[in-house]
Fold:
Amino acid sequence: MGSRPALLTPEPVRLEQNQLDRIILKHEQFLARRPDGKQAELSFYDLSDRSLARRDLSHADLSEAKLVRANLDDCRLRMAMLVGADLSMASANRVNLSSADLRGVSFRGAQLNGALLFEANLSEIILPAAGETSRVVSGTGRYRRTDLSAVQAQGIDLTGAKLNGSVVLRADFTDAVLRGADLHDADIRNANLTGADLESANLAGAQLAGVNLQGAVLTGAEIDGANFAGANISGAVFDPRALRGKELCELVASAYRAPSDAEINEALARHASWLETQGKGGQRAMLSDADLGGRQLARAQLALAVLTNGKLTNTNLAQAGLAMIDFDAADLRGAVLTRADLRGARLHRAHLNGADLSGADLGPVRSVGTGKRDFRTNGERAKFARANLAGTVLREAQLNGADFSGADLRGAKLCEADLQDAIFTGALIDGADFDGANLARAQFAGLDLDKALLGRAKGL
Structure:
């Protein structure tokens, strides 16, 4: 039998912008079910440096297309085929690639901030050999891993996405949503996952050396065989079982310290003296990374204390004096903070899921110091899912990107608060006062806003 003739990879066809615009227009007409429409077939085309911004190419075929430095900002590519495409250095902020086939795609150095890749497939793939049809002949295929190295993807939504075997080296996934994502055997070394939501994600066998997981959520995540060497897990939330496992035990031992009752009492006494003497005596409580979980600290006076990255799960802080405290990235899940004074507190990326803040005051502190400055509570990107905030004062608080899913906000005071991009899905908002609040891009899906007091609210 004679040898198989050599087949060549198709030469990329370069399109001018006006040619591309005509193809996209026809495709948009196809999506609108117009008789003059035609589905876009752009596989193997060279679209480098071209603009697809704000256009709709859902269901289009861009397999192995070259989109280097292309502008895909706000482009809709739902369920599109981009297998093996090259989007290196592309600008794809807020692109919608939900359920798209992205196997073997190169996103190296691309901008994907705020992108939506819900249930997209970014797993590794064997592409046909040069010149082959879509069928891979045994022993001839080209193995390719999806490459997300060095991408800027803050706030990207990869819920349920398949990223197994992908390369995510040095990527910026700050505040990314990766709930239920499959990342097994992925290479995520030195990536920034600060504040990321990895609930129920599969990280088995993943390489996470040097990754920054500060304030990230990994409850329900599968981490068997994952390598966390040198990772920063300060303020990260794991299941108790995972914290005791071989993958994390050494990191946990170095990340948190559990002070004794005597040490805590001494720190409280020195802090009280520091407050009373206005800093001339005593010592400010510096309890960053301390494990205070389950402690009884009701009515404790910890105004201006520093508890960044602290572990305070189920801690009782009812009626405590916590004005201007620093709880950044602290784990306060299930904590009792009823009627606590949290005016001017720092709660940036803090975890307050299931906490009881009913009747607490998170309003501003007025006229502080010789400059008479006002200090607003900062709860940006904080998580209040299923928290009790009934009757809580959140006046003028900075809460952009905060998650109030399933929270009880009945009668809460959110007047003049910054709630841009906040999530209220499933929340109880009867009688909640949003007068003057900034609600731009806030999510109220399924809620009856007539039950709330909107007054002069902006952005709806």
